[in-house]
Fold this protein.
Amino acid sequence: MEKLTGLKKIKTAVFISGIGSNLKNIIKFSKIKQSPISINLIVSNTHLAKGLKYADQFKIKKKIFNFKNHKETEKNISILLKKEKIKFICLAGYMKILSKKLIKRFDGKIINIHPSLLPKYKGLNTHSRAIKNKDKLTGCTVHYVTAKLDSGKIILQKKIKISARDNPTSLAKKVLKQEHKLYPAAIMKIFN
Ligand code: GAR
């Protein structure tokens, strides 16, 4: 990944589908002087994503795409990214799979946060799977996005203990707290 030159921050889009706590955290991080990125666009696949409120709160352009025609929608996303001169993409609880074409166009420039210690528990319901398997440790991972789900090169990972009292909800809360530290740290690691 190229080093930062001068004061120009890298134009970044964040893709979300839900609450958007990672989005809010990344926006706040992007505003500090040391941040290599600025958040210029928020993309969602649903109007129901609560995190869309941060677009209004922080005055960031947002766009919601309904995926009636997947191919067409991906094309429209691609056009928008070009128009907004987006150079980097952070997936933050985005629950759609990106097309191979888009991933190729942004090769090495799309990252994702996943609530498990990858390669363990790719996909959904990571916390209930970890508890069901009586794991003692879980965590979160920031990784590059490739065509294979949750399988790209790992940038940073944080381990978190699972206690006997944990249930999927309490564990999700614990992991999310660490995600908020890990995502900015991973972005710093990429660009510095
Ligand atoms: C986060 O825990 C993130 O790791 C997970 O969704 C949550 C989004 O929370 N992502 C995935 O499961 C992707 N496969 P947020 O909307 O509050 O950032």
